[in-house]
Amino acid sequence: MIQILKKAIAICSLVVLGGAMLYNCEPDPDALGEQLFLGDAAQGTEKAFEITTFNILNNDQIRSDASKLVEAAPLGAFKEGQFGMQRASYLTQLRLSTYNPDFGTDAVVDSVVLVIKPTFASDSVTTTTLDDNYTYKTTADETVNAKKVVNTYPVTKFGKAKKTLNIHVNEVTTFLKGSSDSVQSNQNFAYDATLLGSKEFKGSISSVLITKDSDGSELFTTASIPGIRIPLDKTFFQNKIIAKKGQPELQDASNFIRHIKGLRISVAEDDGYLFKFSPNAMQLIMYYKNGTGTAKTPATYAFDLGSANTHIGQYEYNRNDSALKSAAIGSESNSVTKLFVQGMGGPSVGVKFPLQTIQDLRKLKTDNKSAIISAKVRLYIDPSWKNSYTKPAAFTLLQRTSNDYNVSFTEDLSAFATLPGFVLIRSNLTNDRPYYDFVVTQSLKTLVEKQEGNEASGKYLKIDIGAFLTDVNKNLIGPKITSRSYDTQRVVLVGADATNTTDNNRAQLLVTYGTK
After folding, report:
1. Of 206, 205, 199, whose CA–CA distance to 169 is shortest?
2. Phi and psi of 55, rounded to 5°?
3. What is the pTM of this model?
4. How buried is residue 285: exposed, middle or buried, by Cβ count under 10 Å (0-12/13-18/19+)?
């Protein structure tokens, strides 16, 4: 069942409803709420109400196994003053593409390369001509005049884009179990300290293209999707693969994933940037020759690093000397000044509607016959987060219960997700005080109009970095199926602390209501 789910998610994109794309303008009163709840009302009045906002720390951990890293996995390290240091490593099993392989007579490994396919800006290509008068050999006896160029693309990063990272590859020495097993991001796995390979990565990837002079047709390209090519120790593969020809270690998958337990990919630095890559698109290719005497025949063997293997994201944090380390956490009854939200298991934000707010809204309904047209929680970006880093483009908004910490879709998302034009999260990120609006119309209406005295029920809203994932039919899969496990972004928001005299734009509930 897990494998079916993984394949279903893998061929779909992040859904707009979760905030993968935000509506970037100041909204009028919610047309959806106007149609559904107010009938023939002529106009609405907007009023701000108090809310309670607090930080949820999550112990800096999250589930990060293969079921969560279907679309992407993060790699790299980044350090800044608000959240501290965050570093991401990646572990994967590898399998033989064919078992009991025959490498021929006297096979000798020439080289081995690991290829990582990161997310990159395909529309920001830099083309460099290496040789305008290149001679390309089409056959042993025929050549054509050609041009050899290199296309270079910047990898999509979060952090200090101009830093150089040293990527390291090590052999894992702990059995990684099955691809459906649950793994937390802070779980440790032993590995051999001796490097299998390394690569100095400057933040871009390239592909080589050779075209014919006569008609511009393509003669050769390194890959349809460029990647980071990391050379690995050929002696390791000579001893672990070629020398084991015909032996039990190469006979089946069960033996092989215990013979070579996996690879660990990490960066040496603790500061730079984070980037994402596709786990199932990774390649491991062994180039070798076989045959007797001097007439050896070149050959290649491709290992399987795809979805059949265990994939694990390992995330580590150092919050020392960060603003988050000393920040107030708050609670469901105690708002704080600053709110911290970060992907990959970092903190979340909690939002609660206090009793007084519910009573005030009920009084409007009772005394003035007012109905809620729309409601939104507005959270401003804190001035301390004034930097050049990309502002988050995806959030999830969930309903959570205090006593058991179960989460579910909000009533707005459950009821209206499939309606054309419905947007759960809106934003205005272009003005001097950027903010996000989280739509809570139906959730608030239920509290005010239907749940008698229910304020002590323990329900509150939980905001995370990330987006909901959808199946092949664009339906939401579930409240816990999101991109949060590999989303590299973060932001500091202004809380609802009423004693905060340094910022007038504190968190608030904005309700538009009207009277028939």
Report:
1. 199
2. -95, 145
3. 0.88
4. middle
Note whether 53 and 494 are within 8 A (CB).
no
Convert the pLDDT of each residue in 16-71 to its tens digit.
344 433 444 444 444 444 444 434 444 688 999 999 999 999 999 999 999 999 89
CB 119 within 8 Å of CB 277: yes
Using the Cα atoms of residue 390, residue 489, residue 440 and residue 46 in order, give the sign of their dihedral. Answer: negative
What is the CA angle 365-402-475, rounded to 5? 80
Rounded-to-integer distance, Cα 489 and Cα 4, Å? 29
Calpha distance 472→470 (Å, rounded): 7
Which of left, alpha, beta for 31 (phi over 0: left; psi -120 to 50: alpha)?
alpha
Q: Hey, how many other C-beta atoms are within 10 angstroms of the C-beta on 444?
A: 24
Please state whether 214 falls in left (phi above 0), alpha (psi between -120 and 50) or beta.
alpha
Q: What pairing do the DSSP bridges indicate for beta strands 283-290 and 297-303?
A: antiparallel
The strand ranges marked E within 10-106 are 45-49, 52-56, 73-80, 84-92
Ordered alpha helix ranges (H), 91-209: none
Number of Cβ atoms within 10 Å of the Cβ of 304:
18
